[in-house]
Amino acid sequence: MEMENSSQIPFPAASGESNIPTAGNETKADQLAETAQPTKKKRSLPGMPDPDAEVIALSPKTLLSTNRFVCEICNKGFQRDQNLQLHRRGHNLPWKLRQRTSKEVRKRVYVCPEPTCVHHDPSRALGDLTGIKKHFCRKHGEKKYKCERCSKKYAVHSDWKAHMKTCGTREYRCDCGTLFSRRDSFITHRAFCDALAQEGARTQPLAATSSGGDLKVQILAPPPAASSPPPPPLTPSTGVLSPVLSIQSSAELVPENLTAQIQSSPGTAALSSSTTTVTAAPAVTTRPTAAAVRGSSSTSTGLVSGSTGIFSSIFNASNSAELPQPPTQPASYPGLICAMAGPDHQAIDPISLSLSSSLYGSSSLFSAASEVNPQLHYGSSPQPALSATALLQKAAQIGATSSSSSFLRGLGLAMPSPSKAQDNASTMASATSSSSTPLHWTSGVKLEINSLASGLGLGLSSSGSSGFNGSLISPSTSLYGNKPTTLDFLGLGVGASETSSSGLSAFLSSIGGGLDMASAPLAGVRRAGDTWDDPVDRKPSV
Amino acid sequence: MSSSSSSQKPDVTLSLSLPATDGLNPQERGVKLIHLLLTCVNHVSAGNLHHADACLRQISRLASVTGDPMQRLSARFASALAARLVKRWPGLYKALNNGGPVSCDVDRARSVFSRALPCLSFAYAVINRTLIQAVSGEREIHVIDLGSGDPKLWVPYIRAVADNGSDGPPCLKITCVSRNKEAQESLGARLVKEAESLKMSFQFNPVNAGLRELTLDMLQIKTGEALALTSILGLHVLLAEDDRVDAHFGLRRSNEVKECKRMNEFLEMVKSIGPKAMLLVEQESNHNSSRLVDRFVEGLHFYSALFDSVDAAFGGLSRPDRTVLEEMLGKEIENIVAGEGMEREARHERYSMWAVRLTRAGFRPIRLWYEVMEEARRAVENYGSGGFKIASQKGSLMICWHDRPIYAVSAWNCISFC
């Protein structure tokens, strides 16, 4: 095998005795010995080559070769001489294992033999033998491996294997039809996608602003999500509701952080900091067509349950912090587990994803059920962008990248001030006065409802809580024993006062939609699996 | 990417710091409305009154009943959510609504609906042809109209029957089951007049009852008659049952077809009279999930298609007719979102679920003839400014708004011993 002399390159380290080894074996052995050492080598920073490093230029044949060491008896090939020597022992042949040279270790860097390559320059040399081999294969080699699904070709076997893992598992599709497996590339693409710009231009005179707005909506969420401000400080307050409310309001921000954090570290630490007791979570999962969800949708639905499990478990957790409920239900925990164990998916906003999952779900239900119809491909309709259905589709596609996270904040859902119990009356008053303007529909009514409701909620919840818990727990299964916490917040005390008059029906109707969430934790749990033994046994949906 | 985002960052921070809704273009506003609505329904479902209220406040700033379709849709949905919240205090709700649900002019709304959108015309065309085919050759025909009472369906039908009869027109009896007495009377008068002009033996039999109270003797079936039934956007009310407890404590898969006693009884009754055909027109969307959020999201999709089609039909203009129609849709939405138990009658289900129900009850679909479909398709696709399509799915014809099916028509008869 040939070794090029690298001394022609005016590199300070080019001189040296080991620069032109006589046999390639020796170099390899040295390197092998190096790699066999327990201390891991740190990756050096790119673009800052070690001036003392030894520059090695290997020939293409060397780089591409595998199994250069061949046993003369059985012709078995080995990549390393050490391995060959060990093999020779089996044949009872004389063998010799070379020790690592006692010379001081010299950092070696490798240059690419291809003259046109940027790494041919020693200042752009790569620091790792495996690295240079892979680089050479990838860039200057023949692509021998092919992905079945997407027909993408690879020269390096490990690249191909890595691709096969992710191909088709998660896809983003832009309106223009391009498929992406990576979220960041998808977002980048959308920013400049012609199709979107055209759509904006066609339907609105202010094409620039519309597509700009679109971009704003889509792109900006990752930065805000990533750098979201810390949740508003939880000011201590004495009312029963206020800490609940303020925690809730901050809790809404927290999921943003949490779900983002979950990506990096299993969020146990983050979650435990914000939850005291994790009680039954009103995980607001949407499973409109959950059973019919197929393919990629199913993973997204799973994530919905998971993340919403966290989302709402925080609500409940904070609620339960106030009221002494035994944490009998590890209800949200499976949901949490799911989210944590869940994919390294990004923080998809549960809300939008609910939309998207139903979107995909309904379309897949439909398309799966329909027999004939090429025309029924949902989502390919050329509607003007302003139409409600197109907006819904967009909102669903935008998913987490969207505005939803920034919207949630912008929505002032996190506003601590209006949520404080004590200030409720006053803020409600001010809020009502401020919002008195555009209520196109039932004017006035809503304002009164608000103040009344808050008053009722406030007044009766504290009194009703303890008394009501008992009555709430009895009809329900122990599973839902914790429901009273959130219900009381609603002022189910109202229900309590009416219970005498109208009995169960009033109770039920006042729970009304509030207990819709009762079904929800099961939904969240289902996705997480069978870690929850509730009396009302439900099988996970397919 | 970074440059564009950094240049846009100032805009975003601006819009974040101001609670500003000004400066949002319609598209952004629409997306924001959607997110607000979804956030709100999550809060309502979880029982977070104050947060839901905050959302509603924001929504009311952006939404309007006289705006673009998304705004109108949001206004109706937000109104439904608010109604749901108020219903927690039944006294409040009743007092606000003066002791009864707010009535809207359903008749007028329905008539606007059939005029402005081709959905009903399409359904009528299919029903017309299918009925003719199903009872062709019969001399005594008895058609039972469950709840529609629309002359636009029956007048052409009478004419078609008269045309199709060999040896003169057959004897035709139409029974109209409806709670609306005036509509029945006017329909009866018109049909009788029409039949007279065609010199047909015709009988009109109004039954003033709802589907729930319908019994066989009310229908006055005679032996030897060829029977057919039509139910237009009305059969789902039979699915209403007192399932509030079930909705809270139970859980079923949302696309699982839940056995409904009343519906089964009704279908048994229908089977016992052995009709030659039962025509069913229903909304193609699942609004019968026990979970609010599921219903809400399904409803958003479905009614967004409807509102878009209404907007297209009215050319974006705001007219009293349009308001009436949207009010009717708003009432449906309110029923879906705010109603529970028996009062939630708008229990739409998708055709696939109806198919399961009917099959379980012993019905089999009748193939809707190809010529029906072609003719209907042409009519619909040329309607107005376009946007409607016809699709067929496993025994039902669906009219779609831009690939989203909205209404499904299907025909059934019962197997054996008919």
Automatic annotation (TrEMBL), chain A:
Keywords: DNA-binding, Metal-binding, Repeat, Transcription, Transcription regulation, Zinc, Zinc-finger. It comes from Sesamum radiatum. Residues 16-25 have a biased composition (Polar residues). This is Zinc finger protein ENHYDROUS. PROSITE patterns: ZINC_FINGER_C2H2_1, ZINC_FINGER_C2H2_2. Residues 221-235 have a biased composition (Pro residues). The keyword DNA-binding applies. Residues 69-91 form the C2H2-type domain. Residues 425-437 have a biased composition (Low complexity). Pfam families: C2CH-3rd_BIRD-IDD, C2CH-4th_BIRD-IDD, C2H2-2nd_BIRD-IDD, zf-met. Residues 1-51, 220-239, 418-438 are annotated as: Disordered. It comes from the Eukaryota. GO terms for cellular component: nucleus. SUPFAM superfamilies: beta-beta-alpha zinc fingers. InterPro entries: C2CH-3rd_BIRD-IDD, C2CH-4th_BIRD-IDD, C2H2-2nd_BIRD-IDD, IDD1-16, Znf_C2H2_sf, Znf_C2H2_type. SMART domains: ZnF_C2H2. One of its GO terms (molecular function) is zinc ion binding.
UniProtKB/TrEMBL annotation, chain B:
It comes from the Eukaryota. A motif (VHIID) lies at residues 141-145. InterPro entries: TF_GRAS (IPR005202). Residues 31-91 are annotated as: Leucine repeat I (LRI). Pfam families: GRAS (PF03514). This is Scarecrow-like protein 3. A motif (LXXLL motif) lies at residues 235-239. Keywords: Transcription, Transcription regulation. Residues 338-413 are annotated as: SAW. Belongs to the GRAS family. The keyword Lyase does not apply. It comes from Sesamum radiatum (Black benniseed). The keyword Manganese does not apply.
